[in-house]
Each structure stands twice: as structure tokens, then as C-alpha cells.
Amino acid sequence: MACMATTEYQVTGMSCGHCEASVREELSKIGTIQQIAVSAKTGKLVITSSEPVADADVVAAVDEAGYQAVRVA
Ligand SMILES: [Cu+2]
Prior knowledge:
α1 packs across α2 (55-65). The protein has 73 residues and is α+β, with helices and mostly antiparallel strands. It has 2 helices and 4 strands, in the order βαββαβ. The chain has a 4-stranded antiparallel β-sheet, covered by helices on one side. Residues 15-16, 18-19 line the site of copper (II) ion.
């Protein structure tokens, strides 16, 4: 198994499970992402990927879903 990269973002604007699903759907288009943990309650988004994902790609995907992501870790 290749090295896994984990990155964390704070997402603003989500309010329910549908918001989480929209974020998941957009992020799933980034092929290297293996795992997505997103909470509308806390705004926390944790991405596990097989290769480092560009922050700009994550921010763009979340923006496409209608929310704002900021990298925190
Ligand atoms: Cu919602």
C-alpha cells in the first residue's frame, strides 16, 4: 500500500446531511481521494488520499458544492 496523505479543512456554510453529501460528491471526482470524513455539525473535513491532493482542487470542489473550505492541517 502506498503512503496515505491526510489533510484537514474547515468548511463553512454546511447545515445538514445534504450539504455533506454534496461535498462528498464533488470531492469524489478527485480520483486520488480514498476516504472523506465530513461533518456539517463541526464543519470538519478530513481527506485521506493516495497522493497529496492540491489544496486548490479541494477548495474548488467544495466551492462547486456551494461551500468554503480552508486548510487547517
Ligand atoms: Cu444541507
